[in-house]
């Protein structure tokens, strides 16, 4: 008789284990930090890159003279028929005319 197993013999006991397969592991500090970094930091970096890309594309289009580029949004434009008087503005909506220097 040969020592080789025959097809009708049962498989060795090492291939059949009765221990359960663990699919869930409790979260660790490292996993929580990694998850927080992915969900909080990466979207912030993505937003920065999108913003800088938009600024760069607008600046490039303006410098190359492509049609339809505007330096200021239309909401900042003066009303139709109203012309500026050439006053210097301080950025708060009031002119600097008549203000002394301290």
UniProtKB/TrEMBL annotation:
Q: Where is the composition biased (Basic and acidic residues)?
A: 84-93
Q: Which Pfam families match?
A: TOM13
One of the GO biological process terms: mitochondrial outer membrane translocase complex assembly
Region entry Disordered: which residue ranges? 1-22, 78-102
Q: Which domain of life is it from?
A: Eukaryota
A GO cellular component annotation here is: mitochondrial outer membrane
Give start-end of the signal peptide.
none
Q: By its UniProt entry, which PANTHER family does this protein fall under?
A: MITOCHONDRIAL IMPORT PROTEIN 1
Q: What is this protein called?
A: TOM13-domain-containing protein
Organism of provenance? Tuber magnatum (white Piedmont truffle)
């Amino acid at each position: 008789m040969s020592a080789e197993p025959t097809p009708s013999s049962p498989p060795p006991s090492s291939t059949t284990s009765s221990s359960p397969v663990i699919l869930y592991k409790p979260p660790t500090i490292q996993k929580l930090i990694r998850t927080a970094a992915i969900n909080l930091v990466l979207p912030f970096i993505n937003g920065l890159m999108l913003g800088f890309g938009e600024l760069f594309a607008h600046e490039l289009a303006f410098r190359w003279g492509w049609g339809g580029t505007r330096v200021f949004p239309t909401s900042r434009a003066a009303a139709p028929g109203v012309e500026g008087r050439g006053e210097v503005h301080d950025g708060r909506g009031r002119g600097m005319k008549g203000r002394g220097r301290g």
